[in-house]
Design a protein that fits this description.
homodimer; about 350 residues; alpha/beta; Peroxisomal Thiolase, Chain A, domain 1; 2 domains; seven-stranded mixed sheet
Chain lengths: ~350, ~350
């Protein structure tokens, strides 16, 4: 049997699935940031007519998925599987969305790594011959995340400078067995790394080791080096995690300074928008990828990108019980050209 | 490109992955039930030396996975992917377990459908040529679930007769590209069904429509009928859901009465053990499958089984916000013989 494995943690797709559509919906704050021109819809009100933050998040995810499907000139009936997840307990944004769409559904939990977790599984399922079209999606909402993971907004808690701002937004990708690209060519699946950080206001520091491990392993497995990429972009390490990553990758022998960025730094203007270390949340990598990266790849301004969404897999309860933050990073290579 | 699809929601595996090992660890109450002889380890104390119910659940999952791997004469290094999930917020039992095992990890959330969600994805990833060995696992714990989803145990809340008893236990399966069976031959992936039930103490009623939909679709897609199976077993519909399922399946034209059972009814003696409608929780289908079903298949007492784990995908918050319970059911066919 043909094993498509390359090295220890990577697979090479034999018929690379094509990204035939991407859609993004973001909140007002994200719509004031540097990437505003790349988003399909910027909400004026992050409640979007719903009666709770959680219902608003589900509506944002649902509408982003519907938009991605319609941009591909398809209907939900044409999609064989939906791979999605989010930050909320029991991933309710994704499950209530999947109820509305009536697509066979695999619910995922990878925290802020969900965009590449869903792309990884979706791409393998297509390449394996099990589907022709799948949707990969995720969402987050500042106000639903803040009250679940930290404090009620009404409390007015002061945020330390290592803290990140959860993105309000959703991104959805339609993958297809056929298409004109960009293509998903390699998938490097992460192991959990946990260096003992217990501060839930320092996600960048907690997640950097996982990103370093996955990117290093990707280079070892594929033989690629930083210069083979136009862009290597992590999910949401933001300012703190970026410094750790660049420093430690250099010690591993890889200088990423020329090609590296982070979705959490791209989405906000930290100085002007008062977002401290930068953006975070499942929606962060989702809207930066389906907005900025996808559109720049279609314009051929970027031709090969390594997207490395990063997730912190703790819960408020596990932190209260004295546990540290386990983190994970999943990488996918997106290529305009296939061999 | 070869599409392995059969009908609308089913795939047929071209090189059916073999189940080469299954392991189960259960709590004391499960160890007093009718299936006690099938479990690998019955705990005397459901805390297992840990300082919280949540940490105990993670230990149970971790040890069940290690046991499954060692029973297959493998080590964690031989496993390319771990597919797992559980009921706890942010699936902490699974993520802390994945941290200890250092296997590339895809976190899932399917509530009590997780056992077949993980088997579905694991089997497709192997059949697609992306892995040689994967582990599929899940866990639940009565005490961690009860305080998260319902009331603190100390509150002494009275349980209605439709309520189910969350199983304390974990099950893990090792799937392999090669082996002597039993094999996973068909996978029918569920859509969410929600008939408007809002009572979180009536899971069986909420989940029955999803099971009915998936089983009916499985028959339509594959051409199989109830008589082709030695056993068709749902995850945890228990007493209430079983009655609804048998009744409504008959109206759909399928008489399941000769071959049907439910994991939630197998695991406890409802009369003697005071478990009301029956068992539930991710661990329920996991230990009934990896204990009873797997061992009976190896003994050739069962030769073709349809395992249909069912999940209720609400959260306590979504119910408080007036939402109903979205439910899903994923079916896998397990065969001693392949064509």
């Amino acid at each position: 049997m043909a094993i498509k494995r390359v090295g220890l943690q990577t697979v090479k797709l034999s018929n690379p699935p094509s990204i035939i559509s991407g859609a993004t919906i973001v909140g007002p704050k994200e719509g004031e940031g540097p990437l505003k021109e790349y988003f399909d819809l910027i909400l004026e009100d992050d409640m979007w007519g719903q009666e709770s933050f959680e219902k608003a998040e589900a509506k944002i995810q649902e509408e982003a998925i519907k938009l991605a499907i319609s941009k591909a000139n398809l209907s939900p009936n044409d999609i064989q599987y939906l791979f999605s997840g989010d930050l909320l307990n029991q991933i309710i944004s994704s499950s209530y969305t999947a109820r509305q769409l009536e697509i066979p559904y695999f619910g995922l939990y990878g925290a802020c790594s969900t965009m590449t977790e869903s792309l990884s599984l979706g791409a393998m399922i297509i390449d394996g011959g099990f589907a022709d079209k799948v949707v990969c999606a995720t969402s987050s909402h500042f106000s639903s995340a803040e009250r679940q993971f930290r404090f009620p907004l009404e409390y007015g808690s002061q945020r330390p400078f290592t803290s990140q701002w959860t993105v309000t937004g959703a991104g959805a990708t339609v993958l297809s067995a056929t298409g004109n690209g960009p293509y998903i060519t390699y998938i490097t699946t992460g192991k959990i790394k946990d260096y003992g950080i217990k501060d839930a206001n320092n996600m960048g520091g907690a997640m950097a080791p996982a990103a370093i491990d996955t990117i290093s392993q990707h280079f070892k497995d594929t033989g690629y080096s930083p210069k083979d990429y136009d862009l290597i972009i992590t999910g949401d390490l933001a300012l703190v995690g970026k410094r750790i990553l660049l420093d430690l990758m250099k010690r591993e022998g890889y200088d990423l300074s020329e090609v590296y960025s982070d979705c959490g730094l791209k989405i906000f203007d930290g100085e002007k928008q008062d977002t401290h270390a930068g953006g975070s949340g499942c929606g962060c990598a989702a809207v930066v990828f389906n907005g900025y990266i996808y559109k720049e790849m279609l314009k051929r301004n970027l031709n090969r990108v390594l997207l490395v969404a990063t997730g912190a897999l703790h819960s408020p309860l596990s932190i209260l019980q004295g546990e540290s933050i386990p983190a994970i990073a999943h990488a996918v290579t997106i290529d305009n050209l296939v061999e």
